[in-house]
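Sequence in, structure out.
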Amino acid sequence: MKVGKRLTIVDVARAAGVSVGTVSRVLNGNAKVRPLARDKVQAAIKELGYAPNAVAQSMRIKSTHTIGCVIREINLTALAAFVRAAHDVLDEAGFSLLLSNSEGQRERERELLARLSGRRADGIMIGPYSPVTEEFDAFLRRLNVPIVLIDRDLPAWADSVMTDHAKGVRDATEHLLKLGHRRIAIITGSPALYPARERIRGYEEALRSRQLEPDPALIEASSFLPDKGFRYTSSVLASRDPPTAIIAGGIGMLPGVLQAIRVRGLSIPGDISVVGAGDSELSELYAPPISIQRWDQAEIGRFAANLLLDRIRGRADAEPRHVLLPNEFLARESTGPVKHAGGLGKIADRVSGA
């Protein structure tokens, strides 16, 4: 063979002593090829150093072996375990993971999804930040690609992997109630999104189990974006009747909450107890370590990738599969007994400058 000549499947077929059709079936993963013929083809490919044209192959079999993943904040370290676990499962199956960042912007989220569909991604993993309206539901259906939702329950026709946020926050709230706290604030996203809605449900259930009615002034449910933690915490601590505990109900909110508390010169848990969401280096290494509502991000990644592969390979039933994974409360040193009335007045005086 002349140096520089481009190898083709004809060359592979000739070297293996099989037909061109057999080589094509081996390259396309056809399970019906006899083992002996498959071994001959694979040996010839290795000997010749043949590399199939990936673009042409994907056009023939209508597959790019690419999975898209759209997340809200690509720089959240808490999501690293999810991305790594999903990547490893997909890589083992011969698929590449393409990660995109929506920045919590509705139009950007849709643009990224449409782009992935247009580039013939074989599947998409997403935790939509946009509430799933009838119009958005129709948009997702038009993508015409298997979708697995990450920590979302809508649209109900898609496969999903969720964690039990209601239990995690219910246990956290009950822990604070046992420590004597009654004014417990919670900061989370819009109730239109599953994690926020479930966190609020767990919070309210814990309060009502003690015959306590939730105070709307202590529930901030509008956004998961990181700056919300700082702005709301600053505002609520400046009130005349501030909370004695705060639950940061979003994985990007804890830094802002801690910053707002520090700016006011308050101590944790002496002046105020704090609960975060999701395990991170910050929650573990902060002084004192932060109590958290936690779940296994890697497990979510593995489940999501496998659900998607099942859909792509036609191994899943027609009915959507909704997986609910455990969520637990881990008490650390950032939660402590509440101060009595005098302590509450001290906090209010300190934040007001009195």
